[in-house]
Specification:
The chain has about 400 residues and is an alpha+beta fold. The chain is built from 13 helices and 16 strands. It has a five-stranded mixed sheet with strand order 5-4-1-6-9, with helices on both faces.
């Protein structure tokens, strides 16, 4: 068994970099059968490895203080300064992890990319409020993408910044691109990953997502806005060329207008590369991995027992469920469009996802079922019972009345 990180890296090396089984096994230091199993499996390993305490942990504040004054201080000198009583290997490893946090940033920035090499992603929030229904409106988020080589732009508006919505937006962008790049670039978005201890740490959900697609991930380091300059310029282009003068009925209308506009925008001649992105993207796709036949399922999933009021809460809204399954365990799945509830192998509810907040969504069929169930209870035949009639003289004798 390998962990989720190695599983995802094996699939990236095999599908994106086109490396063989032996090469991957030698590079990662794992058995070839382990690599074969990871390539065949579309599902990541289901276990978590707990981090064990290290002998270096109590000394880490002192190490950070020394590196802050001198980022290039050797590990042997640090060991002497902090009176390190153990072996030098584990200290040297920890210093190697912490040192990048205190090095000055590299001012160089690469501005040319190979076909299919990477796609930059970002979250853009338009200033225009989007109607959500029930007299509510809100500023929503747009997952934006720009290919490094062709400058081809893709985008999709999503209801929230939650991981399941952001990854669903990424899938729409990949479909617009027509393929999956070797690497995707992201900011330190909470649902994607963060830089910790000098290395990028991705969320488990995003590890599963990128492993299923066979792509690598590069997180921009903190305070490095130039690392994602293409996407920042594209977001500014949306602000000045797409938004002005437009009105939107709902999120679906926004995405329809946006994708229609992107078709024209990608056919313009890009001033930076002196070429048309819609023409260069074919070369990009040739170097990228094709979209898998079955895309990863990134929907939000919940499992619970249906309470007596036959409603299930997802985010802030309550959705009705067939009342005949009250008390039974149900499975809830929510994607960008629908909330679907199943009980065993049967679908017991399907609602359009409500983007407004704190609403109760009732399916008329569920209300009719509830009325039928109550009618069945009231129409039960009354039981006929024989009641004995007692002689009144018996009460007189019991009370001592003559």
């Amino acid at each position: 068994m390998i962990n989720v990180d190695d599983w995802a890296e094996v699939r990236r090396l095999h599908f994106a970099e086109k490396l063989g089984i032996k090469t991957i096994a030698r590079r990662l230091g794992v058995a070839r059968n382990t690599v074969r199993a990871a390539v065949r499996s579309t599902d990541p390993p289901h276990y978590e490895r707990m981090r064990r305490p290290s002998l270096v942990d109590p000394f880490e504040p002192a190490i950070c203080a020394l590196l802050k004054d001198c980022p290039t201080m050797p590990a042997t000198v640090i060991a002497e300064r902090i009176d390190w009583p153990h072996g030098i290997t584990i200290l040297r490893d920890r210093v190697a992890e912490l040192r990048p946090l205190f090095k000055p940033p590299d001012p160089c920035q690469r501005t040319s990319y190979r076909p299919g090499e990477l796609v930059q992603f970002d979250l853009w929030q338009p200033e225009t409020p989007i109607p959500l229904g029930f007299d509510q409106q809100e500023k929503l988020w747009v997952v934006t993408a720009v290919s490094g080589f062709s400058r081809f732009m893709a985008a999709w508006m999503v209801p929230t910044r939650a991981g399941y919505d952001v990854m669903a937006g990424m899938l729409h962008c990949f479909e617009q691109l027509g393929a999956v790049p070797r690497t995707v670039v992201w900011d330190g978005e909470g649902c994607i990953g963060q830089w910790r201890g000098g290395r990028q740490v991705l969320t488990e959900d995003f590890q599963r997502f990128r492993g299923a697609l066979g792509t690598g991930v590069r997180l921009c380091k903190p305070r490095d806005p130039e690392a994602k300059g293409m996407n920042e310029r594209a977001n500014g282009y949306y602000e000045t060329s797409f938004l002005p003068g437009r009105h939107f009925e709902d999120i679906g209308d926004f995405n329809h207008q946006l994708t229609t506009w992107l078709t024209r925008a990608n056919r313009r001649r890009h001033a930076g590369i002196h070429a048309v992105p819609a023409e260069l993207v074919h070369e990009d796709r040739g170097a990228m991995r094709p979209l898998p036949p079955v895309l990863p399922d990134v929907a939000l999933r919940l499992s619970t027992r249906l309470p007596r009021d036959h409603y299930v809460r997802v985010e802030t809204n309550d959705y009705s469920v067939n009342p005949r399954v009250v008390g039974r365990r149900i499975e809830v799945r929510m994607d960008l469009d629908f909330v679907v509830v199943t009980c065993g192998d049967f679908e017991v509810a399907r609602h359009r996802r409500c983007l407004a907040k704190y609403r109760t969504i009732l399916d008329p069929a569920h209300a009719m079922t509830l009325r039928m169930m109550r009618a069945e209870e009231t129409q039960l035949p009354a039981m006929e019972t024989d009641v004995e009639e007692r002689d009144l003289a018996d009460y007189d004798r019991a009370l001592g009345v003559a």
